[in-house]
Design goal:
Layout: E1 5-10, H1 13-23, E2 27-34, E3 37-43, E4 52-57, H2 61-72, E5 78-81, H3 85-94, E6 99-106, E7 109-115, E8 121-127
Parallel strand pairs: 1-4, 5-8
Antiparallel strand pairs: 2-3, 3-4, 6-7, 7-8
């Protein structure tokens, strides 16, 4: 069993695509019409054949409620690993990313949390040994 796809709910697929590619540096992998929405995935530029992140519309009332609830509670929707969190934090700050918390030690990890402009908190982390 392998993980090939993970998803996050987004308020606006096009806005999410622009943020995840233009600001974070991911690469669009799939963009297929699916009724009034799109099957829209991005991948890491460092791993173009790696796990895809589906930018899933939050049009379902349950999805929207879930997304809003975890955001309000300060819970990140997902986490991305980085090799150098200080460098990545600086790069993203220069690109205008709004951080809720800067790099903070958490056991063997150093983490930071930012808003993705699409209704989610995203955590980045540098973990010793990963």
């Amino acid at each position: 069993m392998r993980i090939k796809l993970a998803s996050i709910f987004v308020k606006d697929q096009e806005k999410a695509l622009q943020f995840y590619t233009g600001i974070l540096g991911f690469v669009k992998k799939s963009d297929v019409p699916a009724g009034e929405y799109r099957w829209l995935t991005v991948v890491s530029a460092e791993e173009p054949d790696g796990t895809q992140l589906l930018l899933e519309p939050n049009s379902n009332p349950t999805a929207k409620a879930y997304q809003e609830a975890i955001f309000t509670q300060g819970i990140p929707a997902t986490m991305f690993f980085v090799d150098d969190i200080q460098k990545e934090y600086g790069r993203l700050k220069k690109r205008g990313v709004a951080f809720k918390s800067g790099p903070t030690k958490a056991g063997p990890a150093t983490i930071a949390v930012f808003e993705d402009t699409c209704g989610n908190l995203i955590q980045i982390g540098q973990v010793a040994g990963y």
